[in-house]
Every structure is written in C-alpha cells, then in structure tokens.
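Please, structure for the following, as tokens.
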Amino acid sequence: MVGIIGSTLMAIVVFVICYALSRKVEMKPNKKQNVLEYLIDFTDGIVKDNVEDPDAQKHLSLYAFVLFLFIFCMNQLGLFLEVKVGDYMVIKSPTADPVTTMSFAMMTLLLSFTFGIQKFGTKGYLQNYARPVGFLLPINVIEEFTNFLTLSLRLYGNIFAGEVLLTLIGGQLGPSMGIVTRILAAPLAMIWQGFSVFIGSIQAYVFVTLSMVYIGKKVTQE
C-alpha cells in the first residue's frame, strides 16, 4: 500500500516535470527544453553503451528515460516527505519497499525475455541458455534469478538504509540529550540528506544501466 501511494505521487510528479519541460518546443531550444534534451541524451547514452542491437535501442530509448526519472524521484521522496498515521507509514520512498524494487526488476527481466524471443525466436532464445557450451545451462538459468535479486535488492537496500539512518538521526539522536544533541543532529541530518540525494541519483543510474546490460545480453548471441 505504501509503495502504491508513493509510486502514484511520483508518477504524477514525473508527468508534471515532463509536461512542463516539453511545452513550447522550439527549433532553438530554450532552457527547459535543454534540460529535457540533456536527460534524454543521457539515458540514450546508457542504452547505446550497453545494447548493440539497433532495433532494441530504438524501443528502449523511452523506457530508459522514464525508468531513470521515475526511480530517481521515488528515491528522493522519503528524504523530504514521510507521512505516518499511528504506527502505519502511509508515504515514504517507494523504493524503500522491496516489493516495488522487485516489480521494477521483474519488468526489466520480462522485457529482456521479450526482446530475446523477438530476436532469435522461442527455440533460438532457449538454446542460448546452453551456449557457449551445454553444461552451462543450469548456471545460466540460475543467473536469471540472481540478476533479479541483485537488481532489486541493491536498490532497496541502499534507499532503505539511508532512510533508516536519517530516522535514527532525527528521531533518536536528536532528542536523546536535549538541546545539545538537537543542535548537533540538525547539521548532521542536512549533510546526510544531501548525501542521500547523491546516492539516490547513483542508484537510479545503476538500476537503468544494469537493466540495459541484462537486455543487451539477451539480444546478443555469444
């Protein structure tokens, strides 16, 4: 439930950002248009660096852009807004919930299967699991599960740990010894928030990059 509410809010935020930046598109880009084009070029670069197939690149361009922007926004939500009703957390970073990150990882893996089957056909795609030698079949199958877990849990672990530490600084260290610790906790919390913004950005980049790596492997025959 927490992930659904936070994800919905961030979906609205991403839509508003894209709508605001893409209004009044001109041949000579204005500042807002430059920001949007920079983001698109940035995510296009990730796709081209990790996916060799031109047809897959064309279809993955928009996916990579939206995925990066969406995950970036979700990573930052809990740093600035947390809503708790009683003992139940209503709003926090959706990516601090493993169900959300596993959903994104599953979406990426399903896309990789789809592109692989489109590229090689069902039989050819399944045969790729036995390449370059047949005894690697079980290892390649296990790799699918490890890819899913590492892709999802890396993002979840980093965002969850950051929010826990921020909660400890503000909720326990701050009031622990009165005014002294409150004064000490304030700059510490601000520093950690800034660092968490950086970590959230890096994790969005890492998630998109690894997603493109996994998909790129599916459309490349070894």
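The radius of gyration is 21 Å. Strands lie at 83-85, 88-91.
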